[in-house]
Amino acid sequence: MMPELGKYADAVLSSYGISIALLLVLVIASVHRARRVRRELDEVEQRIRRNG
After folding, report:
1. pLDDT grade, residue 5 (50/70/90)?
2. Which of 43, 21, 41, 44 is nearest to 33 (CA)?
3. Can you say how many angstroms the Cα of residue 21 is from the centroid of all Cα atoms in its chain?
4. The predicted structure's pLDDT at residue 15
5. Contact 22, 30 (CB under 8 A)
6. Calpha distance 38→21 (Å, rounded)
7. Transmembrane residues, as ranges (predicted)?
8. CB 33, CB 40: distance < 8 Å
């Protein structure tokens, strides 16, 4: 299932781990920003509705 990496196993596996960690950070940051922007948009829309 996993190819034999020999002496490069540590480097390859750590590269995979770092890549996955960076992807997770990007996804979490994106979701956090989307929630914040949605909340700000809702606030602006409510202000517009109140002021007509």
Report:
1. confident
2. 41
3. 10
4. 97
5. no
6. 26
7. 12-31
8. no
